[in-house]
């Protein structure tokens, strides 16, 4: 029997980590888990004791739309702990380091598709902290026998998702008309299954060069299309109404000041364009992603229907 390969995963209890562990178990990969607090003590000896093969660094402080977290907290978690993990990797026998960054390290808004060549200009502490971690990795020479991958996923959805997609689902489920149909947009999404597939490929293969890769499903989707997919999965007709954008923006500004379902950040996520290119990644993989966006979204909505 083929010996299981070791994968050290940080932040494995989160949404992506839970899905990744399930995915890797099916692929004869043995995971070893390190919590965020455990990262404070991580060192090369700990990795070598596991006969280290690959490190997947998921641990981090997520983007906080309520702006409760301070810049210091983002930098101490997303930047400093990543530095610590990467330093331990360089001193260890592990061969692969995969850092899950974010497209928010490049931009919070975009008018054209984001590529790996886009000059980063993040505006939030979250994006800046991720970018600083990326720069640290890029500025330290990586030994020839090792590989590093900086993955920049866009908005991730899938089993266990609890973000804006779930909020939109609740709106449609309650029969509340979607009032933002006047906004025409296109946004990139990422199935967590596609992300797990990419991570698995990077762990198993040796022909993909180190570097930064944007990760997203092949096709963008409009929020209006998303509402239609949710309604269809619920067996009902979508309810789209065209509230004048100027009025919607006024309500969102009010939501910034008092607790309302809609604020400026949420409005931006629902109505702005945010398209990410996965051309570089697809060219390197030379394999199709297993999940198309509409099928992946349908399956995610079905999991909501089942109460999962």
Mind explaining what this structure looks like?
The protein has 308 residues and is of the alpha/beta class. The chain has a domain at 5-161 and 188-216 and 277-290: 3-Layer(aba) Sandwich (Rossmann fold). It contains 11 helices and 8 strands. It has helices spanning 15-25, 44-49, 71-91, 125-139, 164-173, 192-204, 223-233, 245-257, 264-271, 279-285, 293-305; strands at 5-10, 29-34, 54-57, 96-100, 147-153, 155-157, 189-191, 211-215. The strands form 2 sheets. It has a 6-stranded parallel β-sheet with strand order 2-1-3-4-5-8, sandwiched between helices. A two-stranded parallel sheet has the order 6-7. Helix 3 (71-91) runs parallel beside helix 4 (125-139).
Give the structure's gist in a few sentences.
The chain has about 300 residues and is of the alpha/beta class. The protein is built from eleven helices and eight strands.
Topology:
Layout: E1 5-10, H1 15-25, E2 29-34, H2 44-49, E3 54-57, H3 71-91, E4 96-100, H4 125-139, E5 147-153, E6 155-157, H5 164-173, E7 189-191, H6 192-204, E8 211-215, H7 223-233, H8 245-257, H9 264-271, H10 279-285, H11 293-305
Helix pairs in contact: 1-6, 3-4, 7-11, 8-9
């Amino acid at each position: 029997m083929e010996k299981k390969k070791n994968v050290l995963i940080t932040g494995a209890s989160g949404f992506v980590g839970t899905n990744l562990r399930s995915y890797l178990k099916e692929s004869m990969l043995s995971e070893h888990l390190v919590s965020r607090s455990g990262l404070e003590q991580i060192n090369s000896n700990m990795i070598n004791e596991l006969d280290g093969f690959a490190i997947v660094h998921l641990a981090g402080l997520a983007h906080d739309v309520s702006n409760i977290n301070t810049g210091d907290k983002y930098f101490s978690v997303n930047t400093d702990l990543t530095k610590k993990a990467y330093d331990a990797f360089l001193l260890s026998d592990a061969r692969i380091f995969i850092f899950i960054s974010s497209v928010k390290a490049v931009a919070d808004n975009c008018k054209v598709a984001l590529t790996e060549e886009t000059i980063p200009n993040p505006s939030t502490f979250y994006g800046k902290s991720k970018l600083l971690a990326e720069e640290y990795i890029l500025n330290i020479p990586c030994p020839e026998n090792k590989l590093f991958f900086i993955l920049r996923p866009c908005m991730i959805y899938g089993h266990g998702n609890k973000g804006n997609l779930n909020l939109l689902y609740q709106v449609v489920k309650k029969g509340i008309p979607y009032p933002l149909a006047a906004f025409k947009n296109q946004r990139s999404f990422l199935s967590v299954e596609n992300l797990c597939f990419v991570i698995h490929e990077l762990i198993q293969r040796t022909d993909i060069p180190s570097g930064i890769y944007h990760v997203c499903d092949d096709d963008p989707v409009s929020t209006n299309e998303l509402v239609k997919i949710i309604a269809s999965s619920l067996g009902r007709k979508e309810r789209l109404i065209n509230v004048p954008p100027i009025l919607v923006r006024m309500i969102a500004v009010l939501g910034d000041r008092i607790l309302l379902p809609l604020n400026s950040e949420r409005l931006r996520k629902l109505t702005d364009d945010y398209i990410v290119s996965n051309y570089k990644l697809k060219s390197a993989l030379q394999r199709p992603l297993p999940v198309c966006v509409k099928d992946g979204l349908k399956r995610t909505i079905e999991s909501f229907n089942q109460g999962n």
